[in-house]
Amino acid sequence: MKLSPDSALLTDLYELTMLQAYFDAGMNETASFELFVRALPMQRNFMMAAGLEQVLDYLERLRFTADELSALSKTGRFPTPFLRSLEHLRFTGDVDAMREGTVFFPDEPIIRITAPMREAQLVESRIMNLAHFETVVASKAARCVLAAPDKLLVDFGLRRAHGAEAALLSARAAYMAGFGGTATLAAGLAFDIPVYGTMAHSYVQAYTDEALAFEAFARSQPANATLLIDTYDTEAAARKVVALAPLLARDGIAIHGVRIDSGDLAEHARRVRRILDEGGLSAVTIFASGNLDEYRLRRLMADQAPIDAFGVGTRMNTSSDAPYLDCAYKLVDYAGEPRRKRSEGKATWPACKAVYRLRGPNDAMAGDWITLARERRDGEPLLEPTMRDGKRCAAPATLQSSRDHAWRQLRALPNAQRTLDVDEPYPVAVSDGLRELARRLDEGLAPN
Amino acid sequence: MKLSPDSALLTDLYELTMLQAYFDAGMNETASFELFVRALPMQRNFMMAAGLEQVLDYLERLRFTADELSALSKTGRFPTPFLRSLEHLRFTGDVDAMREGTVFFPDEPIIRITAPMREAQLVESRIMNLAHFETVVASKAARCVLAAPDKLLVDFGLRRAHGAEAALLSARAAYMAGFGGTATLAAGLAFDIPVYGTMAHSYVQAYTDEALAFEAFARSQPANATLLIDTYDTEAAARKVVALAPLLARDGIAIHGVRIDSGDLAEHARRVRRILDEGGLSAVTIFASGNLDEYRLRRLMADQAPIDAFGVGTRMNTSSDAPYLDCAYKLVDYAGEPRRKRSEGKATWPACKAVYRLRGPNDAMAGDWITLARERRDGEPLLEPTMRDGKRCAAPATLQSSRDHAWRQLRALPNAQRTLDVDEPYPVAVSDGLRELARRLDEGLAPN
Fold it and tell me: pTM of the full predicted structure?
């Protein structure tokens, strides 16, 4: 059968077998699950929350269609009364969450779902699938933004993103984290993100003469031509651009930029800049691409390479040095009682929690508290009521407002988190109330 | 706007700006593009081709809908005559490709598209997006299969896959490479893959008594219950399973298996196996999961851990040690003339090519030749005619037949490719004819 990404069947089989067991046992008390990251990947000093809007969309639309129920029935795994109970299943619960673009740290819940157990359990797989991935990408893209804060960064990663949704959502997450746009047309249209495009080497190769390729392209894109100049000899191509410019100018056509995609980008950019400037083309911008990530951006910035914009693809879209997070969606409360998993090396903090952030001079982040939700602390509470009884508490946040929020968050990072290298961890403290509860659970609530 | 993964707009903007330039210049001669991998990632000794069926589906369905053309028109980037030309655009070309499941090496074309230039160019982004990702996953999954060839491996990766399509296609690619199934319900239904499921820690935590949780679950899933036993104390839980079994047996219910998800899996499995066996439950299987990949599988196999099945998730689905390939879709022929890109460090072999594979004793792979398509060699040609004039040459290959092919390919791997470690590279030779053509192009066809 053909499935949409919105399908309620995009879940792990075990969610449904557990639902059936709850159905059979008549269990459906209120459950709270929290999504959090257990530990930072080696090469990250912070995470940036993303994907909440997609999670809320999913929860709002959650339902089993007649076709899906019929497909489930045909598997022979599920009895009819249980399948009938799914027919009317909707998400009727509450969501408390960090705003997209918020910087966060290990053990801090970023999304809490509170709902009747069956609803809260069913949504585990897809909520993680959405929020984990966008958080992975936003966290990587934010590092690129920190490495080249004043440059235009453009997502170039559709071709090596992990499928269609990864391409669309990574474009979104990167834009939120501070990228200036994407090359992926569909992402631009879906999320109202600026779209950038140049040309491929194949375009130049299709002509037997590189200068002819440039001219034809500029005439076809008179407002916006960025010419790829590294197919054969980068500096020779830059001189062809200089020779071509006056011809085009007569027809009112200005070349917008050139792109370099191979070799020593800083050295080529310097030479090309000189050729362009000496040819009177100081307004022509230089766009660079090719295996870029935050480390290469940092080196190019330190080199003062005269590059105006960067196409950042594969390594950002796949977060290639940390393509996943050690995250979990854990039951913290059921039927009014706090719960705690104690598996070796995977114990989790029990109960519904809050996160408070303290600020220092210049509004810089100074430390976080993880507390019980009922405790009060000084500082800014990071989890906000987002959905109540299955309805959003406010209109969806615009991507632009999340992007502004992310920018303010990056500005408030302490220096140790702003660097790309491993540095002092950010101070996150766990309240005495929470520690005490965990201890009491370990002593008193052990199952028998 | 809402976009389906099939949308023709799921492409890079530059594909459309190039198409417009070709339209303006009246250029639409026959072009051949080849998709290949430039170099193996450090931790790979071979690649396994995958994703061809999705590529062919995409090509068969390719068209711009009225809504999409209207969205394009609203961007103000494209003149009406060009947009009208897109209205009737269909893929009318040829595809030659390696069968899915074929083992391949750098510089070997795995898919060749031959079509009027505009069609062949437009499809670049999505073809790469599909074939690259599935190839990445199949290549990683194949290593897991090599590490534990006689075990049931189940894809557990939906939650940390990069979005919905990544979850579905990684389940497919892993199954093709030799996994036995997936936990992702939607993938099972979409691709007819066996689906496996157990239970989550939250299920155990929702009960105040672990044994009650086990009993309720087994009664709800009488044919198929696999109980998760590491929420609190793994061995204590195994003893609860032993105590529970006779009660359930009275009602005709047999426990199918137990799952261990944390700690020293080999040591826990040994202790649990002993507890189960001594309790008369030698038929109960042990399922292990938790951050598994080919290296951990190899160690567990070397340890002779009594584990019957493995849930392999995140690291496989994201191919975490090599989440992308250095692959390219390059123009190799236009209007009957071979083409070659010469960018620094990124030069490519010109012209339409063939790959021939030689076999040694026991049918083992003995070396490949990359030749001009018109050359003939001994050995098995790896590229097959797959589509002609936009129509498939045969009915879609079943996933099962591709899986069988993949299995035969893995069996024929030389020892150096079968190991997980870096070893002698597989011999791939380039024919004199191809070398000579490249040399002539470099000397004679330099653009001016």
Answer: 0.97
**Per-residue pLDDT band at B446 (split at 50, 70, 90):** very low
Predicted pLDDT at B138 = 98
Intervals of CATH 3.20.140.10 along chain B: 13-138+322-444
DSSP A177-218: HT--EESBHHHHHHHT--B-----HHHHHHSSSHHHHHHHHH
Residues of chain A with Cβ-Cβ distance to B199 below 8 Å are 14, 17-18, 21
Instruction: Give tens-digit pLDDT for B39-53.
Output: 999 999 999 999 999
Residue A370, Cβ density class (10 Å: 0-12 exposed, 13-18 middle, ≥19 buried)? buried
Q: What is the ipTM of this complex?
A: 0.96
The residue among A205, A282, A321, A194 whose CA lies nearest residue B446 is A205
Q: Which of B208, B41, B229, B27 is nearest to B117 (CA)?
A: B27
CB atoms within 10 A of CB B4: 14
Q: Per the CB < 8 Å rule, is A163 touching B166? A: yes
Q: What token pair was written down for B87? A: 């209205």
Inspect the interface and report whether the beta carbons of B165 and A1 lie closer than 8 Å. Answer: no
Average pLDDT over residues B71-93: 96
> In this model, does residue A224 exceed pLDDT 90?
no
CA-wise closest residue to A149 among A177, A170, A127, A169: A177
What chain A residue is nearest to B82 in terms of C-alpha separation? A220
Pairing of the two strands A111-116 and A94-98: antiparallel
Tell whether B202 lies on the interface with A, counting CB pairs under 8 A: yes
Token reading at A259: 């792109």
Q: CA-to-CA distance for A295 and A434, rounded, in angstroms?
A: 39
State how far the alpha carbon of A400 is from the alpha carbons of A133, A179, A309, A314, B379, in Å.
20, 12, 21, 24, 58
Asked whether the beta carbons of A294 and A301 are under 8 A apart, the reply is no
CATH code of domain B150-317: 3.20.20.70
In the predicted model, what is the mean pLDDT of residues B364-378?
A: 96
The whole-number pLDDT of residue A448 equals: 30
A40-90 residue pLDDT tens: 999 999 999 999 999 999 999 999 999 999 999 999 999 999 999 999 999
Please report how the helices B164-177 and B399-411 are oriented relative to each other, as an axis angle in degrees rounded to 10.
Answer: 50
A167 neighbors A158 (Cβ within 8 angstroms):
yes
Q: What's the gap in Å between the CA of A98 and the closest CA on chain B?
A: 20
Contact A125 B345 (CB under 8 A): no
Query: Do the Cβ atoms of A315 and A321 come closer than 8 Å?
Result: yes
Domain with CATH 3.20.20.70 in chain B: 150-317
- Say if residue A305's pLDDT is above 90: yes
* Domain B13-138+322-444 coded CATH 3.20.140.10: yes
Residue A186 to residue B9, Cβ atoms within 8 A: yes
- Please list every residue in chain B whose beta carbon sits closer than 8 Å to the beta carbon of residue A19: none
With an 8 Å Cβ cutoff, are B133 and A342 in contact? no
Res A58: pLDDT: 97
Q: Which positions in chain A touch B67 (Cβ < 8 Å)?
A: none
Structure token digits, residue A29: 């008390």
Burial of A9 (0-12, 13-18, 19+ CB in 10 A): buried
pLDDT at B448: 30
Gyration radius of chain B over CA positions: 26
The nearest CA of chain A is from the CA of B196 a distance in Å of 7
A354-375: pLDDT as tens digits: 999 999 999 999 999 999 999 9
Distances, alpha carbon A179 to alpha carbons A141, A171, A295, A321, A404, in Å: 7, 9, 16, 19, 12
Q: How many CA atoms lie within 13 A of A422 on its CB side?
A: 4
